[in-house]
Amino acid sequence: MNRDFTVVLRGYDRTEVDRALGRAEAALTSGSESRRAASLAELGKDFTVVLRGYDRQQVQQAVAVLATALREPADQA
Q1: Mean pLDDT (whole number) for 46-54
Q2: Got the DSSP string for 2-45?
Q3: Which of 22, 38, 60, 70 is deepest in the core (most CB within 10 A)?
Q4: pTM, full prediction
């Protein structure tokens, strides 16, 4: 997944987003339903808003795509 988010004045913490999306992408390829469920729960939490963070709308769109993929059964992903 392309994670080339725009950095804006008040956006989501870049480290938090990178880690959460990285774990979600790893969960997608793991084949583990428990990892997928844990990643889905993590993506449902709010990210911290900071100065010079990722554009919130872009991150929310990426989270929505990943969340949809994580909800699919592992054998279909």
Answers
A1: 97
A2: ---PPEEEEEE-HHHHHHHHHHHHHHHHH--HHHHHHHHHHHTS
A3: 70
A4: 0.88
